[in-house]
Every structure is written in C-alpha cells, then in structure tokens.
Amino acid sequence: MDTLSRHGRTGRIVCTVVAGALLLAGTLWGQDDHFPFGPFRMYAGSNPPNEPAPDTRVEGVDVTGAVVDLGQQNTGIRRAEIEGQQSRYQSEPDLLRTVAEAYAERHPEAPGLVEVRIVIRWHGIRDGRPTGTAVDETVVQWRAP
C-alpha cells in the first residue's frame, strides 16, 4: 500500500481547508450564482403548511381568441427568467412584447398574439397536502396596440 508524501498530505489539507472556507463564505454571504459554493435558494426553503403554493406560467391569446402556452418550448425563454424579472415586467408591461416576438419567431405560421400575460396559479394547501383547489391570478399583461 502506497502512502502519501508530505507534499501530498499538505496539498490535500490545503484543498480541504480552502473548499471548506468557500462553502462557509457561500453559505453566509453567497447568492444563487455562486453555486455550488453558495446556496441554491430554489431548494432552500418551503411554503408554510397552510398557505397556497404558487405556480407561475406565461400565456398568450392569439387573434382567434385561443390561449397559447408561452413556455420555454414555444418561446425559448425559461420560466425562471420570467420569474426572476417578474417585478420588472410588472413595472414595465411592454417588456412582455419580447415574449410575443420570441413566439412569432419560432412559429411564423401561427396566428399573431394580441395579449401576453404572467399568471400565477395558487394551489390550495392544507396541512402540507394539496387540496385540489386552485385560483389563477394575472399579475401583469401586455396587449398589442
């Protein structure tokens, strides 16, 4: 069985101390962008057991009146990007035009969108279990001129 040299042991100890310090600093002051040395807040908490759970989605209405899912597959825009900028969309609803443009670029044959909205579906929760009820709340919408 081979044993580590003095330099090998010292190197491992230094790496362990540095990694530990980065983890500690990330835990105390880090943000999501610092993962894996910072917290990944998406999984760092939970909703209280009797409060509704949010499920955010983006949807559009085309010229025929049909509701269209504007998720990543249809627009190329990830839901996390929308959620992360939600307050900005609420203060500047015209920014939702870019979602309509992304959809039109991917689906040139589809009827044009006349409305884009961010909707939160609040799923009912009681004692930490889904109740089967849900309420939709439109938090921001943009309508084509």
Describe the secondary structure blueprint for this structure.
Layout: H1 6-29, E1 53-62, E2 67-69, H2 72-75, H3 79-84, H4 86-91, H5 97-106, E3 113-126, E4 129-143
Number of helices: 5
Percentage of residues assigned to helices: 25-40%
Task: Identify low-pLDDT runs.
Answer: none
Q: Tell me the strand percentage band.
A: 25-35%
Biggest β-sheet strands, sense, barrel: 4 strands, antiparallel
* Global mean pLDDT: 90
The coarse overall form would be elongated
Write down the secondary-structure element order: HEEHHHHEE
Structural class: alpha+beta
How many domains, as an integer?
2
Cα-based radius of gyration, to the nearest Å: 23 Å
- Alpha carbon gap, first and last residue: 77 Å
Strand order of the largest sheet: 2-1-3-4
What is the total tally of β strands?
4
What does the model show?
The chain is of the alpha+beta class. It has 2 domains: 38 residues; 91 residues, no CATH class. The protein is built from 5 helices and 4 strands, in the order αββααααββ. A 4-stranded antiparallel beta sheet has the order 2-1-3-4. Strand 1 and strand 2 form a beta hairpin. The radius of gyration is 23 Å and the shape is elongated. The chain starts with 5 loop residues before the first helix and ends with a strand.
